[in-house]
Design brief:
This is Pyridoxamine 5'-phosphate oxidase. The chain is an alpha+beta fold and 184 residues long. It contains 6 helices and 8 strands, in the order E-H-E-E-H-E-H-E-H-E-E-H-E-H. Helix 3 packs across helix 6. The longest helix is centred in the middle third of the chain and has 15 residues.
Length: 184
């Protein structure tokens, strides 16, 4: 029986950090993960492992160190199972989002980060219709298109070094593609 694990990399192919997904896949194969798939060019990795093999935060930290060395990059990875990605997709389907808004999922390293972000969001001025919805150790952020980094919350969270190792964001369309690949 095989298990799917998703590794979400922070900051790939933005702000001068350039990485080809084929090179990333080859690096992971070289680390001993023969069944690797990448989704889009933003550092979304699916590893298929035999269910009898342990895979968790320790392996994730080892992979981050190895990829950081390989690509000369301060690598931060966020681990989820395929089932956890499915839970995010299910929760997202219950949220109504107008066409003129982005729907992001913030994947956090701990549930406490969601509480911290919730407090930041509550105290920040908001764009009309902007919302923050905690969902376990993730959160949905609904923001008008064209103002992602222009909102007070977006500028305080997404681009700040303090959150570099604590969260990564994905558009819900990307999350759906990751889940579809996990389901195959």
């Amino acid at each position: 029986m095989a298990s799917k694990y998703v590794l979400l990399m922070r900051g790939i192919n933005v702000n001068g950090v350039s990485m080809k997904m084929k090179d990333l896949k080859d690096a992971l194969i070289g680390l001993g993960y023969p069944d690797v798939q990448t989704i889009l060019a933003t550092g979304n990795i699916i590893l298929t492992q035999d269910a009898s093999q342990a895979f968790g935060e320790l392996e994730t930290a080892e992979i981050a160190r190895a990829l950081g060395k390989e690509f000369q990059y301060d690598c931060h990875l966020f681990l989820r199972t395929g089932d956890e990605i499915g839970d995010v997709v299910a929760a997202a389907s219950a949220v109504e989002v107008p066409d003129e808004f982005h729907h992001y999922c913030l994947f956090c390293d701990h549930k406490e980060v969601v509480s911290e972000l919730s407090g930041l969001f509550a105290s920040a001025p908001k764009a009309p219709g902007e919302r923050f919805i905690p969902v376990g150790r993730e959160a949905f952020w609904i923001v008008p298109k064209g103002s992602t980094l222009g909102t007070d919350f977006g500028s305080k969270v997404l681009g700040k070094k303090a959150y570099k190792s604590r969260l990564t964001s994905r558009n819900i369309n990307t999350v759906n593609k990751i889940y579809a690949a996990c389901s195959k």
